[in-house]
Amino acid sequence: xxxxxxxxxxxxxxxxxxxxxxxxxxxxxxxxxxxxxxxxxxxxxxxxxxxxxxxxxxxxxxxxxxxxxxxxxxxxxxxxxxxxxxxxxxxxxxxxxxxxxxxxxxxxxxxxxxxxxxxxxxxxxxxxxxxxxxxxxxxxxxxxxxxxxxxxxxxxxxxxxxxxxxxxxxxxxxxxxxxxxxxxxxxxxxxxxxxxxxxxxxxxxxxxxxxxxxxxxxxxxxxxxxxxxxxxxxxxxxxxxxxxxxxxxxxxxxxxxxxxxxxxxxxxxxxxxxxxxxxxxxxxxxxxxxxxxxxxxxxxxxxxxxxxxxxxxxxxxxxxxxxxxxxxxxxxxxxxxxxxxxxxxxxxxxxxxxxxxxxxxxxxxxxxxxxxxxxxxxxxxxxxxxxxxxxxxxxxxxxxxxxxxxxxxxxxxxxxxxxxxxxxxxxxxxxxxxxxxxxxxxxxxxxxxxxxxxxxxxxxxxxxxxxxxxx
Length: 471
Known about the structure:
Elements: H1 9-12, H2 33-52, E1 56-57, E2 60-61, E3 63-66, E4 71-74, E5 77-79, H3 84-105, H4 108-112, H5 115-131, H6 134-142, H7 147-173, H8 178-186, H9 192-212, H10 214-220, H11 223-226, E6 237-240, H12 242-245, H13 268-271, H14 292-304, E7 311-314, H15 316-321, H16 325-332, H17 335-356, E8 361-367, E9 374-375, E10 381-391, E11 397-404, E12 410-411, E13 416-419, E14 423-433, E15 441-451, E16 458-467
Helix pairs in contact: 3-17, 5-7, 5-9, 7-8, 7-9
């Protein structure tokens, strides 16, 4: 059957490929200024991660989020579940810091400090050490399966697995005391949850950093999707100077040729890119801001005897108007950045002030609901309360309890309690009141708890004293 152009139906339709077949990226190492910064950030972040859990403070692990005891130890601070407000503040500060850094310098976090980028970099170092540089890796993968190829592949994956398992063990050591964890590992006595989380995190480290790599940044990371909402024409990004670089092309050895830009079209900026993009096509969401293309392009320009900076950190407005460094800096300090900075500083200062003035004592008052109120032998009314003391300081305290709010209120029995350092203690406290001291039903009272060693450690907790209904 033909159409008006005389073509058959089979000829009128064309096949359109919606998804390209995945091709493995063999990133070439680009040495230079920014590569040195990446190495430094990898070493610093991993020294903190792998070494932080072995630090000690007051005879215990300095950094420990102890899930069994439900206590978080951060050097000299002890946090309980009731301190979740501080976790909220940390998340808010982290979010605003990320917004600020992104608005100023794009995906700087992605290129230098993101765990996915950091561990991918480490895995690539191992891969290069075992299999060789980019060309050697391509040749090895495309070659037949030989004893040498099998040995290299097994060695690489073996090292990846060992590193991943140590990473999983390290993460588990922040939630379970690492010395106990290490002892249990040596004696093959790990708990079920400890085994699960070690292998779970190790498995994801091996999968994401060893195999998926750029696919995580391109298809799984939500940050790559909403970054455009935080970018504007004055955000620092990796840019290609097309005015200077175009028209691109290889230089001939002799003869006449059309005038060319500084870009020699060597393609090295693509080969070094960990996500496989061509920065000369403009800003793309896959760009993680690692600046490998900047390092390699600067190296090519120096060999060509031309100025560096054909690919560089700059802004959209700076590229259009040829701003110098001072003009770029003046445009970066814009109202949006000032608002982000002001909010971040305000939240950080408030959090620091509240943390510095935090009272290291928490008390929960629970009235006994089995017997709401009863009349004792002398005619007075008795309510029974349970006081849960939480000493968040790493020294023991003796607390004195008093009660007020009604005439004749009296605590029966002990009113002083010893609580060990960074521990909790529960006490049952009967309270008596005269029958005519309050109205029927609930009457507000207040417990006052103060540490004998430090009168500044004082907590006031409200409660209700019940008087039975008269018959």
